[in-house]
């Protein structure tokens, strides 16, 4: 049988890719909440949402509840009360804990054991009840706490096979301090598996985005139990490369199987006042809650004392099923795909279907398509004045996503246009198979968890290329089949990249879309040159129009606000007072410029705040009392300075800090006898290589500070105290903040600093 008409094959292939993209968009959303009564032993989003509303009311409607605050205490009391009401006996574990961001605070974790039907190691469900100072934390992580409370009720009504321990910790937002504290408790030694509940946004489907311990074991249990399971070893592999942490980062130290569940849509509301109940999607709450309960029951029914070991490559097929295989199979399977492609080349060249030169030329198709799409994706995502780091997400991403996927179509159109006549259909077909399989080998060797993205289409392409060389099948449908296999794994990954990474994902989204459509190159190459040129220029024009539309639309709006944080800073040494304004859009709204004489450009306000360039305006000095370093003792020990003192806020601020400049090596540092852990390199870089130590939840008597410095002195250190809110002089400026702009992260704060010189010894 000969090949069908080129136009018919091209239309068939295009329908396959477009249909796969439509199915991806439809399936990668949380299922609608259940209607009607829900059994006592099942998860109910209605009951879960009521728990969330109770937590937010306890804090004080819309009031943030950061670590070691009265609002945090009220939320904790609500958690304890609700657990007692279902017949459990929670305990509050208090300690002074230090997180990996060099922040220390008194934390109070709530832990409770829910009895199961039998003995053995317990399943731990972790969430955190503290929010950032800027927002009420309805999603992050009020949703996780509400789910935990609903799980407690369901597990009391219908016990799991073994005990379940609920950990509702405090201090996650300051560097996972609560989880660090839990590791030192006797209860931690009784844990055999972990499920962590998180949110990095207010909507979207629940994803299994990270595993610990045996990923093969976790993926198998999740696949068998979850409703609409969305999971990928790609997420876990990529997450390890990103500068992000959750409590599971710390709980990995338990050495048990672990799963991290989160939803990540609506990330522009993350850590802002809009992380509230009104913006939380109940479908996201239900998807996460039902999957969490199902996974907990599945883990509890497992032999956790002898859990199988091993890593897996796994991915879902549009939430319908999860495909998985041992990760050590990835490289052999990729080599098999390469062998099939090479065999197809040998047979095809031997039978005169293609020349070796045509195959070599066709091998350029994959890098050409991927690189071309990446360049166009970079241009499409490069909104003027927008930082992919400080402002990763736009208010209206529809046109942007359209531009990125159309950029992928342009990339896939380049090989048939530039190589089609010289390589011919068989040169392109075999070249694409070789490119996919060679790429699969490289990815399998470097990052096995991501290998399936190329491995699946590579195996199909290699097998069909060999079959097509040996037999005379209808090759247009065969090329469409290869494209379908690639679309089912590449397009869902591309769809989730933007909510996960924002603008920085633009080139990756476009490249993934291009590779999904690339197997159609042989049939597209048979079209007329005019038709092939139209296949490039048409999507390019549409992508340009979509990108222009994105630039016309506002970058932020009332529902996806601009992050505009105000700081009041008083330098006690010079008497200078100023208001600082940081915008994630890198601009200062006109109402604020009218409210104070701000500098025309933003710059780092402190040596240790290089990542927060701010506009600055001088204000009258209100004469706030400076922090005090009392009972200072400096001793020399073999070229080192051993320093002890009491750091106190004379104005009653709840936070103090010590900052040492680059070049001063800090060998040890403690607050009230608790050693501050050494941070990761990215934390050091974030503070411009300054060593910044912060103590929250400060009592009026202050905190004891001890440090060992690898220096003979003198050393100038900067001390400061910080409190939420602004003095009257700066509050008037904050009142000019326009609609669509909100504070974020630590919120609007007042900071008073002074410099203390440690003498040489």
Characterise this structure:
With 761 residues, the protein is of the alpha+beta class. The chain folds into 3 domains: 6-27 and 328-552, no CATH class; 51-305, 3-Layer(aba) Sandwich (Aminopeptidase); 561-761, no CATH class. The strands form 3 sheets. The protein has a 15-stranded mixed beta sheet that branches. It has a 5-stranded antiparallel beta sheet with strand order 13-14-19-16-17, with no helix packed on it. It has a two-stranded antiparallel sheet with strand order 8-9.
Q: What are the salient characteristics of this protein?
A:
761 residues; alpha+beta; Aminopeptidase; 3 domains; 15-stranded mixed sheet; five-stranded antiparallel sheet; 21 helices; 22 strands; 42% helix
Task: Please render the helix and strand layout as text.
Elements: H1 6-27, H2 45-59, H3 70-85, E1 91-98, E2 103-114, E3 118-128, H4 138-157, E4 162-169, H5 177-183, E5 191-199, E6 207-212, H6 215-225, H7 233-239, H8 247-251, E7 258-263, H9 282-300, E8 312-316, E9 322-326, H10 330-350, H11 356-362, H12 365-381, H13 398-446, H14 452-470, H15 475-501, H16 506-517, H17 521-524, H18 529-552, E10 562-571, E11 576-583, H19 590-595, E12 615-619, E13 628-637, E14 640-648, E15 655-660, E16 665-671, E17 674-675, H20 681-686, E18 691-695, E19 703-710, E20 715-724, H21 728-734, E21 741-742, E22 749-758
Parallel strand pairs: 2-18, 3-4, 3-5, 5-7, 10-21, 10-22
Antiparallel strand pairs: 1-2, 2-4, 6-7, 8-9, 10-11, 11-12, 13-14, 14-19, 15-18, 15-20, 16-17, 16-19, 20-22
């Amino acid at each position: 049988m000969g090949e069908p008409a080129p136009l018919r094959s091209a239309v068939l292939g295009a329908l396959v890719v477009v249909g796969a993209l439509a199915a991806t968009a439809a399936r990668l959303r949380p299922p609608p909440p259940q209607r009607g009564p829900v059994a006592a032993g099942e998860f109910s989003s209605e009951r879960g949402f009521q728990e969330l509303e109770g937590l937010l009311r306890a804090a004080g409607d819309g009031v943030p509840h950061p670590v070691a605050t009265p609002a945090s205490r009220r939320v904790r009391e609500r958690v304890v009360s609700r657990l007692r009401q279902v017949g459990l006996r929670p305990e509050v574990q208090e300690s002074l804990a230090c997180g990996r961001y060099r922040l220390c605070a008194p934390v109070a974790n709530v832990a409770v054991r829910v009895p199961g039907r039998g003995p053995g190691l317990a399943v731990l469900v972790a969430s955190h009840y503290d929010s950032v100072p800027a927002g009420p934390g309805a999603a992050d992580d009020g949703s996780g706490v509400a789910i935990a409370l609903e799980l407690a009720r369901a597990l009391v009504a219908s016990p799991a096979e073994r005990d379940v321990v609920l950990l509702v910790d405090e201090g996650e937002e300051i560097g996972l301090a609560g989880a660090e504290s839990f590791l030192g408790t006797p209860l931690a030694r009784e844990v055999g598996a972990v499920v962590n509940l998180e949110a990095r946004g207010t909507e979207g489907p629940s994803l299994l985005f990270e595993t610990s311990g045996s990923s093969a074991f976790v993926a198998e249990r999740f696949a068998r139990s979850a409703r609409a399971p969305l999971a990928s070893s790609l997420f876990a592999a990529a997450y390890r490369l990103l500068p992000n942490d959750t409590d599971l980062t710390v709980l990995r130290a338990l050495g048990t199987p672990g799963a991290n569940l989160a939803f990540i849509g609506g990330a522009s509301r993350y850590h802002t006042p809009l992380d509230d109940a009104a913006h939380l999607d109940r479908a996201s709450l239900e998807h996460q809650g039902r999957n969490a309960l199902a996974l907990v029951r599945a883990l509890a029914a497992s032999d956790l004392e002898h859990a199988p070991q091993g890593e897996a490559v796994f991915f879902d097929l549009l939430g319908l099923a999860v495909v998985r295989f041992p990760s050590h199979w990835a490289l052999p399977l990729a080599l098999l795909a390469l062998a099939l492609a090479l065999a197809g080349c040998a047979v095809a060249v031997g039978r005169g279907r293609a020349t070796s030169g045509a195959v070599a030329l066709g091998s350029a198709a994959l890098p050409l398509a991927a690189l071309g799409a990446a360049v166009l994706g970079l241009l499409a995502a490069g909104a003027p004045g927008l930082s992919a780091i400080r402002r990763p997400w736009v208010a209206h991403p529809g046109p942007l996503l359209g531009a990125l996927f159309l950029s992928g179509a342009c990339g896939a159109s380049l090989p048939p246009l530039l190589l089609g006549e010289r390589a011919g259909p068989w040169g392109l077909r075999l070249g694409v198979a070789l490119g996919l399989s060679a790429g699969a080998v490289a990815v399998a060797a470097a990052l096995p968890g991501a290998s399936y993205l190329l491995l699946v289409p590579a195996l199909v392409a290699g097998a069909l290329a060999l079959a097509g060389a040996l037999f005379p099948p209808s090759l247009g449908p065969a090329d469409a089949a290869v494209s379908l296999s690639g679309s089912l794994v590449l397009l869902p990954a591309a769809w989730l990249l933007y909510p996960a990474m924002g603008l920085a994902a633009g080139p990756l989204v476009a490249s993934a879309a291009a590779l999904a459509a690339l197997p159609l190159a042989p049939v597209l190459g048979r079209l007329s040159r005019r038709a092939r040129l139209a296949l490039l220029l048409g999507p390019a024009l549409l992508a340009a129009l979509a990108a222009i539309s994105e630039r016309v639309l506002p970058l932020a709006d009332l529902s996806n606000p601009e992050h505009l944080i105000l700081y009041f800073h008083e330098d006690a040494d010079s008497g200078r007072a100023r208001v600082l304004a940081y915008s994630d859009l890198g601009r200062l709204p006109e109402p604020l410029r009218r409210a104070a004489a701000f500098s025309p450009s933003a710059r780092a306000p402190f040596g240790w705040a290089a990542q927060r360039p701010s506009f600055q305006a001088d204000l009258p000095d209100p004469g706030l009392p400076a922090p005090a370093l009392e009972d200072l003792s400096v001793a020399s020990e073999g070229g080192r300075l051993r320093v002890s003192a009491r750091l106190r806020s004379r104005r009653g601020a709840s936070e103090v800090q010590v900052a040492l400049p680059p070049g001063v090596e800090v060998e040890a540092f403690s607050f009230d006898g608790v050693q501050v852990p050494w941070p990761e390199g990215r934390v050091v870089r974030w503070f411009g290589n300054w060593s910044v130590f912060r103590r929250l939840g400060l009592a009026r008597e202050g905190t004891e500070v001890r440090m060992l410095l690898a220096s003979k002195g003198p050393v100038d250190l900067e001390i400061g105290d910080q409190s939420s809110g602004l003095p009257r002089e700066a509050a008037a400026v904050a009142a000019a903040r326009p609609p669509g702009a909100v504070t974020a992260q630590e919120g609007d704060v007042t900071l008073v600093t002074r410099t203390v010189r440690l003498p040489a010894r």
